[in-house]
Automatic annotation (TrEMBL):
SUPFAM superfamilies associated with the record: 4Fe-4S ferredoxins, FAD-linked reductases, C-terminal domain, FAD/NAD(P)-binding domain
Protein name (database record): Putative electron-transfer flavoprotein /FAD-dependent / fixCX-like protein
Any coiled-coil regions, as ranges: none
InterPro entries (alphabetical): FAD/NAD-bd_sf, FixC-like
Organism listed in the record: Nitrososphaera gargensis (strain Ga9.2)
Gene coding for it: fixC
GO molecular function, one term: oxidoreductase activity
Amino acid sequence: MESYDVAIIGGGSAGLAALKQLSNLGKQAILLEAGKQVGTKNISGGILYSKKPKTGRVYNVEDVYGPEFLKDAPVERKITQYMLHSTSRNKVFTMNLTAAHEYQANFGYSVLLNRLNAWFARHAGESAERQGGGIVSGVHVRSLSWQGDKTVVETDELEPFEAKAVIAADGVNSEVAEITGSRPKFTPEQLYQGVKVVVKLPEEIIEQRFGIGPDEGAAHLFAGDVTLNHIGGGFLYTNRDTLSVGAVYHYDSLMDRPAEPYTLVNALLKNPMVAEFVKDEVAIKEEIDKNLPKEEQLRVRFAVSKLIKTWNELRDVWYSPAARKKLVEAGKYKTEEEIKARLDSVQNELANKYHTKFVTDYVELEYSAKLVPDGKRCAMKKPYFKNVLFVGDAAGRGVFIGPRIEGLNVGIDDAVRAANAVARAIDRNNFGPQYMGEYYSQLIEESPYTRDMKEIDKDYVKIFLDAARDVPKDIIGQRYGMVFRLMSSGTLRGLAVGFANILGYDKLLPLVESEDTYVQVPVELAEKMGRPIQATYEPTLPTVAQRVARLKYDDDRISHIKVLDSKSQFMKKMVTLCPTSCYSMEGGDVTLQHEACIECGTCAKETEWRHPRGEKGVIYQYG
């Protein structure tokens, strides 16, 4: 039987960071990833932060990958604007929270995980191979068992092998956690459901529309009527030449009043401010004359499709300085003006010869969803089992404090701490829970992110108070008015936060995370203080079936999900809450068609839920 020092399960940013850190320390490790390529199963909101806390230290992405990360990693845009919008119909009230975004941060980049995790995998994999390890993709771990002090790892694709230590980085629906019984499945009260679409928009149009430079980016958060009366909100992040637009909601709020996840994204896209942010020029094919001979109809259809493809490609190039320069340097065009002339020529041919219409609309590229753990509620108190260490989402760890949402950087920090604990165990040849597991727990407790999951930071609170200083106190209402006034006093704020931390998050959360906070107060702010925004068009919103049809799958005839009780109230709600409508009712029973599944795990609580077999299931192009 093959034997390795360490097996890492899961090829997301946390698992890859663990692999890279172990190889940095000269240790052998192998990483198993279910996707055909690393990055095809990963989804993020998302901003990747590098932090500099006031006390303690965190391990940032550049600590793991070195200066090469800052030099050439395929991040999207450095976020330099961070805005919070309260919405009510066509009125929007905006607060600038850039100071909160920059608080204790070196930087925050918008990211798309398909390309970023592929970059991580290349660097981590090359480093690991030098130590006798590496990355094996297309492999799904089926079970773990123990023979003495070693773990036997069984997969659907490979022969069993042994590992002295295991790092579980297999996400919020961790199968390793279920196999080992180290924690129960997370409940709706402990989770958020996130749904996202990637929207196409040319590079320089993004910069003009959001008032940012080539090396800048913007993040916009939304609360108010866009939430459809749920606890949570919307987000829009600028990428290089796309936008990430989505909604993140308390899962228990959705369970209380089930709503189709795509309707929450649609509500955001229909908001006049967001509609204006995402709009673009779109080519619409004219109906082909049915009186033409069949051969001529096919010829016209092919010609129009080819020209529209050329028009889209040239338009993307025209609005990208780097792409324009590359085409000229490659000799395909003599000057940039020649590119524009060709673009205009194609557009004229489409309009005049084929009667193609050019309209204002928006272009969706990809639809995705995932569950996100709320570290305040579900971080594992003991993030290990025997010789298995849990990191990131698998350990239920993430920072969610109002508009502060951090997961990628938390997972990377966890991964480095796990790698350090494993390296120490290798050096001492001691992988017992009292040695390796307890040491990892100690390292996790020392993390500033763990403190953030437990305590309120009074300096962070002050940033919000400063941003809201112009908000009339009567809008906030009696429920919050006294707290607001108390916190506004520099003398009393420290005492108030200290008292709040003694009470603990569990006592405060029902007050802070409520419909008042996410819906009613933002709506009133928008109504009384907001500015009206008029949309110049009505966005054409795809159906969920159309969104699923755009996704790429390697279908598996064997379902990775088994319904345990087809009559339970939870499963009946899945008919509404599944992001791709995999569930339906037949008589009194809930039935499953798994082929459209995007592996978010929304249904995992009351199903036998597994990740698909290696290389099977959804294949994200953006992530």
